[in-house]
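[agent] plan:
  1. take the single chain provided in the ticket
  2. run structure prediction with default settings
  3. attach structure tokens to the ticket
  4. add a short note for the reviewer (M.T.)
[agent] executing step 1
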Amino acid sequence: MSKLIVYDQHGNTLSERQLNRERIKIGRRADSDIPLDHISVSGEHALITTIRNDAFLQDLGSTNGVRVNGKLVKNHHLQDGDEINIAVFNLKYIFESWVMPDHSWVDTVAKTTKQAVLRAACHGHETLFEINMEESVGLTREMTASRLFDSPDRDAPTVAESTRLGVLRLMGGPGAGKQLELTKPVLTLGKPGMQTAVIGKKAAGYFLTYVDGISYPSVNGVEVGATPYHMQDHDILEVAGTRLEFFYK
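[agent] step 2 finished; step 3 output follows
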């Protein structure tokens, strides 16, 4: 399991933190996963997202920025030995391979969803669903829904959710106003290597699930995280820089 070693400005080791969670926040706030107590550190300064053996560093809009190996970065795919500088602190990234046990994913949506979408992304080099770049609604793919979104329903389905058709409407860009009816069991969204998510339908309605990328998609301005999000009428979602409105027809 990879880890970060935190040093002060004199090179003294302050702490070590294993990247044993998908999201590790770094900041001045005391409840940060890696707290850095200095006035030059923002309350929420940076985020490290770990997906299996890959770790991605993201600047959370900090005041004084984040540097990796002396270079100012906003997003960075961490490599073994990378040195992260935040204010007077240096954090060294140590890569240690970790293969997640299969049983830990058995009862989650993430395993089946990620594998299916990543297989689709590797078949050719096409964007799965990127509609902010052109007039058309872009390429969509239908995927097997055998085990997607098969976790227990969090809410009982309403008449609207169980019988009405969901629609996505593009907000902004040259294709603004374009609509796509969600007639397929599963629709992939985003751009491979940047940010990918899926929308799938089950009895309780439509669910948005993060699949891959350096950050989570957002709904109504809030990151949805790794847990499937139950879409509500007129939600505004953003995936890979594309803003869409979800609504029931």
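[agent] step 4 note for reviewer: The two ends are 46 Å apart (CA to CA).
[agent] ticket updated
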